[in-house]
Amino acid sequence: MFYLDFKKADCRNCYKCLRSCPVKAIDARDGQAKIIENRCILCGHCTKVCPQNAKSVHSDASAILALLAKGKPVIASVAPAFVSSFDIGSFELFRDALKKLGFSDAFETSEGAAAVTLEYKKLLQSGKYDNFITSACPSVNRAIALYHKDVLKYLAPVDSPMVAHAKILKARYPEAEIVFVGPCIAKKREAKESGVIAGALTFEELAELFAQRDISVKPQNAKPEKSKSTKVASVSASEKATKTTTADGKIRSKFYPISRGIIKSFDYLPAGYEYIAVDGVSRLDEALEDLAAVKGVFLEINACEGACVNGPCAIKRAGGSVEANVAVRTYTNSTPVDVMENYPDISKKHKPLDAGDANPTDSDIAAVLAKTGKFKPSDELNCGACGYSTCREKAWAVLNGYAEVEMCVPYMREKAESLGNVIIENSPNGIIVCNGELKISEINRRAKSLIGVTSPEYIFDCFDPSAVFIAADSGKPASVSKMRLDKTNKYADINIVPLEKEKSLLVVLTDVTDKVNYDEELDKVKRDTLAVTGTVIEKQMRVAQEIASLLGETTAETKVALLKLKDAMLKEDDKN
């Protein structure tokens, strides 16, 4: 699993994450957002803007717990932003909580940041850099290596504070494993690629572990331990080295997690540069665009607005980033950092990266644009509704398999409206749309033909509106069967459907004139048939009565004749 992904069930065609992604590292096909791993800089901005809270950050918590359970010494390197996320001003309390969780010891990453600041100062004083970009934020570093290779030469060839601190700790405690703790998702990938860090826990993950183990960092529930020797390997020679500080005796590297924190960490700013802090991924391209055309610019760039205290996995507190800034400033001013004179080599060579994207030709782009009705530059609205800044950018994404042609909202709307109009205008039914006051907003040709009015303004210009009033008042569908339309002598079944969202009423008229006429004709035939049938029955009854009368007389005569014949025959027998 990648470090960041989206829950499939929650993501539904909004493209908000895509609009907010500075490097368009989101595949938005099939109605679902997915991270494009080789393009992602893990700034985590998409997790903040997602309205469905569909973010899913890969957790290393179980892996870290397994590491702690092995019995090997594990040391935590803790980002200074802990003071704002956990609302605590004492590292000793925090250190004690980490030990209860199973860590051998814990130290502040600001020690590594102090070494980084000293390296920055040396490089600035060398005069070799026309412009200078800080290297503390792994998201920014990756963005430059992938998408701004022309300014890669200005990126400080120095490890981030996290990696620098891990190297310092490994020099002291060669047998220990190092785990970083901070508010950043990008640190997970950087930790894995560093070769010196076993894993990274976000503040959110750590808070869950504390809750599971019922560990509190609050003073009333925790008794802070004073610094004790940790159960790790013996101290190396580098730890015994003489410590040094900057000119005024203070290293302010705990300022790193706030905006302008790196700049504020210097005891003085080397001359020859304009020192500028840029926060937020939305300003990343703007800050780096045409940087090669100027000289003497020092850029402190953070992917997160408000810097690390406002990281994607920081624990949000009342007061937001403003209160977080105050907490870090107060903590930094009260706890300066000393740095060792002989820290390990923390230099880093930044290499360009390739996202593996295809580079389509202009004709390829034009072919995709044509599919959405864009044949000339004026057709390209560049509205950004699809998530991409321009139509050509979106066409590029389609050709790379990251987007679909149908993501063009204006095109799909125009297509839907066009199709809808064709269907409505050619419907065999009359269709009328009116508002709550029964004023007509839409009416098709079939409806006009049925009611015999060319331009009706209100529904009562068409027919008796009683059923429409009922539907409007109740908010429920209503219907009328076989309503006679006076102007045309036609009949229609009328169905009224309230459209709640549109605050309108849909009226559908179905022509039933032929059916009504047929029914009337059928009724006439039935009535005529019944009349004829009655006459026939009456005649048949008279005939039957006459036949019966005749049959009665004939039967009597026959009876008399037969009796006479019988008597005659009996008399004849008696004689014999």
Question: Which features would summarize this protein structure in a list?
Answer:
40% helix; alpha/beta; 576 residues
- Poorly predicted ranges: 221-247
Strand content: 5-15%
C-alpha-based Rg, rounded: 44 Å
Q: How many strands?
A: 18
| Silhouette | elongated
Which range best describes the helical content: under 10%, 10-25%, 25-40%, 40-55%, 55-70% or over 70%? Answer: 40-55%
Estimated structural class: alpha/beta
Strand order of the largest sheet: 15-14-18-17-16
Q: Treating each run of at least 4 consecutive H or I residues as one helix, how many helices?
A: 19
The biggest beta sheet is recorded as: 5 strands, antiparallel
Q: What is the averaged pLDDT score?
A: 86
Distance between the termini: 132 Å
Draw up the topology in text.
Blueprint: E1 4-6, H1 16-20, E2 26-27, E3 34-35, H2 45-49, E4 55-57, H3 61-69, E5 74-78, H4 82-85, H5 91-101, E6 105-108, H6 110-126, E7 131-133, H7 138-147, H8 161-172, E8 177-182, H9 186-194, E9 199-202, H10 203-212, E10 243-244, H11 261-265, E11 274-279, H12 284-288, E12 297-302, H13 320-334, E13 339-340, H14 362-371, H15 391-399, H16 409-425, E14 430-435, E15 440-443, H17 445-451, H18 466-474, E16 478-485, E17 490-499, E18 504-511, H19 513-575
Parallel strand pairs: 5-6, 5-8, 7-12, 8-9, 11-12
Antiparallel strand pairs: 1-4, 2-3, 10-13, 14-15, 14-18, 16-17, 17-18
Helix pairs in contact: 6-8, 14-15
